[in-house]
Structures are given as structure tokens and as C-alpha cells.
Amino acid sequence: MHVRCNFEASLFVIQKVFLTADIGNTRIKYALWNEDRIIVETGQPADFEELYHRVLDVDAFAWCSTIGDLPEKFHQLEIKSLELTPKIRLPFVNEYKTPSTLGRDRMATAAGAMHRHPGKTVAVMDAGTCITTDVVTADGVYKGGSISPGLEMRYKALNTFTEKLPLIRHRADAPLIGQNTEESILSGVSLGIIGELNHRMELLHTEYPDIAFIGTGGDGPFFADKLKFSIFAEPFIIHYGLLSCFILNET
After folding, report:
1. 251: in domain
2. Annotated catalytic residue: which of 22, 47, 105, 225?
3. pTM of the full predicted structure?
4. Cα-Cα-Cα-Cα dihedral of 98, 101, 102, 103, to 10°?
5. 211: in domain
6. Which of 83, 106, 140 is the last residue of a domain?
7. What's the pLDDT tens digit per position in 175-195?
């Protein structure tokens, strides 16, 4: 899939092949940039050997990781690279009280939101392993957000911490009133998440009347059309954030 990129990027970036990687708990999501296009690839299981071989074929590399540092051999490569950490230059003012504990993926999300929606107050709702919300104001201040269990985590928790509740697979047709155990779990988990997101959006809209809501994450499509507020789908926002941070730190 090719998505046009609106970056007014540095000459280095648009003349080179550039890789961004979002390294999560179970998967690595890649984006390969070439000239003014982003070639987005499906996430792969978290395999550092696979990642290493991909990095060997590019001119520059930026990444964020929620599972710690990369193996030493990545740091010995003679290419331009950037790890997203609180120590680098960021395009926003960080008001998080414990910046060292802020997830690197959330930092990238905030940077991507600023690039994609400049001059707007935004809340990015990322439905992945966890469901996170991150708020950036129109004047470029990262305010913080929220973290709650994601879709699969809730299903697994019900199965793990009870004697008899089964582990089920998510379905899009969750009923309002479940008529068996599987339907009851689907109803509780799915409608519970929808209610949670709608309530949070209402509170944020009261606090910031001009706020724009951005949706991302693998489970986002399950909920996007069931929310009370319109939402901008931005499946690649972390990768935009990684590239924008790379450019900022190169200039």
C-alpha cells in the first residue's frame, strides 16, 4: 500500500531509503519511506533478526520500543539512526510528570499527531495491546493521557482469573444482551470499551471544545463507527511521528 506523504522533509530523508519501526510487546510494525512515499507493511512478530536484516538495506533508521533496547549489533551499524527517548529533541513540550516512564510509542504518537494536525488540540486513541489516550494542545504541549486494558487483554483476563469463563475470540456482532456465556463476554468487553471511550471523549470535549479525535491501533476499526464523536483514522501516525522526530534531530 502506498500513502502519499506531505512531509517537507530534509533532503537527506527524501533522497534516501528510510525505515521506521514501532517495536511493541508482540509485534514490530514497519514503514519503509522512499522519496515522498511511505510504503506501509503489515506488522511482523517481534523478531530482532528480521528487523536487523531490514535495517541492513536502508540508509537511515528510527525506532521506538516498549520492550527495551535493541541488541548491541544495531548500534554498530554505520547508518544514521535515532531511538525515540525523552533525551532527544521533541516537537512538543512534555508536561508528563514522569517523562522517563512515558511509553516511547506514546511519544511517537504525540509527535505524529502534531505533524498531521498542526495547530489543533488532539486526542489520539490507540486501541492496541492497551487502549491509550494521549492529548496534545494546539500550542504544542503534551498533557498526558490514559491507559487501560485492550480488547484481547480483557478477554484473557476473564479467562485467566476465573475458573470457568472461556477464552473467546472477538466478533464484531456483540449483542446488547448476551444469551449465553460467550455472548455475555462479548457484550461486556465490547460495549464496555465503547462506553469507556465515549465517556472519555465527552469529558475531553468539555475540557477542550475544539478537540479533534484521532483513532489508531489494530483494534481501532472495531470501535470507530460506534463512537459518538467523529474520529480521524490515522493508522500510521506513530511512523509519521518517528520520521518527524528524526528530521527535527537532524536539523
Report:
1. no
2. 105
3. 0.86
4. 180
5. yes
6. 83
7. 999 999 999 999 999 999 999
